[in-house]
Amino acid sequence: MSDTFDLFRPARRHRMAFLRLHDVTPLAMQYFVQRHDLSLLSLRDKPDLSDVEVLFFSLHSWRDFYDIARLPKAPGQIWIAGGPAVYSPIGVSHRMDYIHVGDGVAAMQRMVQGEFEGPGTINTHCMNTVQAVEEPPQVCFDSRIVMSVGCKRKCAFCVNAWRRKYVERPESEVVEFLQRTPYKGVSLLSNSSDDVSYYANLTPFLQGKSDMVVSNHISAITEAFAASRSREVLLGIEGMSERLRASVLKPCPAEKIQKVLLLLFNHGVQARTVFQFNLPTETLADLEELRTLVHEIQPASKGSWAIPFIPHQPSPHTPLQWSTPTYSIPMAEAIMDFRQSMFGSKDTGVGVYVPAPLYPGRWFAQQVAEWLPVTPEVADAVEALPRKAAVPEMIEFLAKRNVRLPEAFLDRNEHTVFPWDCVEVRQPKARLWQVYEQLQKIRS
Description:
Layout: E1 16-20, H1 27-36, E2 39-42, E3 54-58, H2 62-69, E4 78-82, E5 98-100, H3 105-111, E6 121-123, E7 130-131, E8 140-141, E9 144-146, E10 148-149, H4 159-163, E11 167-168, H5 171-180, E12 185-189, E13 210-211, E14 213-215, H6 223-228, E15 233-238, H7 242-247, H8 254-266, E16 271-277, H9 284-297, E17 304-306, E18 309-311, H10 329-341, E19 351-353, H11 360-371, H12 376-383, H13 391-399, E20 423-424, H14 429-443
Parallel strand pairs: 1-2, 1-3, 3-4, 4-5, 7-20, 9-12, 12-13, 14-15, 15-16, 16-17, 16-18, 17-19
Antiparallel strand pairs: 5-6, 8-9, 10-11
Helix pairs in contact: 2-11, 8-9
């Protein structure tokens, strides 16, 4: 397969092209560019887009919505967006002509033939309701292959479990990929490596290669597993305390976390444990429970341990979409204190690194992009948000600049109409509401 660099063809006239917004090219974009012999342009190169008739975007983050806000569009040009971020399409609905929601292999096949409307594709001129498209794993490029899509668990905050069914790629296709790829560092992509039924069978084919393991089900990490790893293992633990983990349907006892981490460290495996803050009902006592666990583990071994904290946001198409957006500045400051307390920890045991968390201003930019079209005026106001402010203060700040969020942003109930309701996913909205009500009872 072609290397990424070979995909750029700046000399040709671009009837259809993908525009890459950042330095890293999304896997699906690489796959489609090669499969359909399309041009791949880079925003960093400031390309002349005037001769492009159809421009495709693969949007993976809310940040992409702001990048597009000020991008000039030639008269008569057709813009089409896909990617994970467009499950909440309103942020770019005013700029795009079509937005495809869900998997896009079949959609790209028809779109390169000029047939833009079809299953899963929103025509933004009428904002028709669509069912997100689900396809089996097909994308593969260079050193990366998708092993599975969806998730076997039903964590209340996570989109992967609710948007689609869990499906695995045939084992034989992954083995064939490992046998032919010349790359030493490979990416076997899935929401959780240990969900894949045949993942352990791939060990013989990974000899001389390495892949990063993502585990959202840490009970699957065994002695044999730890002994076979050569790259970092990412563990999605999420809640800082046992209480919080249970409250978002991802229970895991602290003793199990401690056992797994010590197992990895004793085999020289680096670990990255992801936690969320701003979860509903969270208090500083939850962070204190985590700090106690870290202080029990840290001096007991050697190695490297990263502990990033991700600020929670109510994600569309999940039970927690009814949660009121909240950002706790005291919690962020407590995390920064924890970060500082870990400086020099490698001298006494495991070296613990706590990255600085995302502060409210940038966190709130995502909330805005899921509720409002990101126009240049909206982008200007959001970029001027104070770095540290509570949600009501940020709402007031934007309102003074004529950027107004609807009342439903803070007042959500069973009858709330969300901006993303034009997209239907595998789990209907009524079912998501039932789960949300169950969570309320658990917390009370």
